[in-house]
Amino acid sequence: MPTNNLYKSVLLDHFHHPRNKGDLEDADIVRRGNNPRCGDEVEVGLFVHGNFIDKVKFRGRGCSICIASASMMTEAVSGRSADEARHLCDSMQNWLGQSTGQVVGEAPEVLEALSAVREYPARRRCVLLSWEALADAINDM
Ligand code: FES
């Protein structure tokens, strides 16, 4: 299967079976991201232990890319320190702004599939919605 098709099937799998989507009532920190252009909205909840993010969950509604990105983000960030997660947020912003290059630094493989979105700059915001909410939440740790 060509790489781009593989990436698209990974994105679709995360959209249809989002990981860590659900209730945030027990989360320590919850922050919301929204896209005024389409009205989509995602809330990200951190379950923290000291300076570490034990788990990240999310809820909300969004397009397929938005939900897939949020799902991947929860997998990529859970278990990381606040500094590592912050670095990953910054790297995602930079990486999506470039048209070529490998996935960001030491980012987990799960994020590779987001490469498929880089050829559609208009969808950048869809990817970053949950990451921006995450960055806000990390700032409160
Ligand atoms: Fe709304 Fe993608 S179209 S976040």
Report what the structure shows:
With 141 residues, the chain is an alpha+beta fold. It has a single domain, classed as Alpha-Beta Complex (Sufe protein. Chain: A). Helix content is 42%, strand content 19%. It has 4 helices and 3 strands; from the N terminus they run αβββααα. It has helices at residues 3-16, 64-77, 82-96, 124-139, and strands spanning 29-35, 40-49, 52-61. A 3-stranded antiparallel β-sheet has the order 1-2-3. Strand 2 and strand 3 form a beta hairpin. Helix 1 crosses helix 2, helix 2 runs parallel beside helix 4 (124-139) and helix 3 packs antiparallel against helix 4 (124-139). It is globular. It starts with a helix and ends with a helix. The mean pLDDT is 91.
Question: How is this fold's topology laid out?
Answer:
Layout: H1 3-16, E1 29-35, E2 40-49, E3 52-61, H2 64-77, H3 82-96, H4 124-139
Antiparallel strand pairs: 1-2, 2-3
Helix pairs in contact: 1-2, 2-4, 3-4
Summarize this structure as a short list of keywords or feature phrases.
141 residues, 42% helix, binds FE2/S2 (inorganic) cluster, three-stranded antiparallel β-sheet, Sufe protein. Chain: A, alpha+beta
Overall outline:
globular
Number of domains: 1
Give the distinct bound molecules: FE2/S2 (inorganic) cluster
Helix % is 40-55%
- Please indicate the percent range of residues in DSSP E strands (runs of 2 or more): 15-25%
What can be said about the biggest beta sheet?
3 strands, antiparallel
Give the C-alpha Rg. Answer: 14 Å
Structural class: alpha+beta
The fold-level CATH name is Sufe protein. Chain: A
Gap from first CA to last CA: 42 Å
Instruction: Determine the oligomeric state from the structure.
Output: single chain
CATH architecture: Alpha-Beta Complex
What do the pLDDT scores average to? 91
Task: Trace the largest sheet across and list its strands.
Answer: 1-2-3
